[in-house]
Amino acid sequence: MKIKPNMLRGKLLSLMNQMYPTPINEMDIVGILYQYHSVDDIKRELQYLADKEYCTRTELPHPYKVGEKIVTCKLTARGLDLLNGDIPTDPGIVVPVEE
Question: How much is the pTM?
Answer without folding.
Answer: 0.91
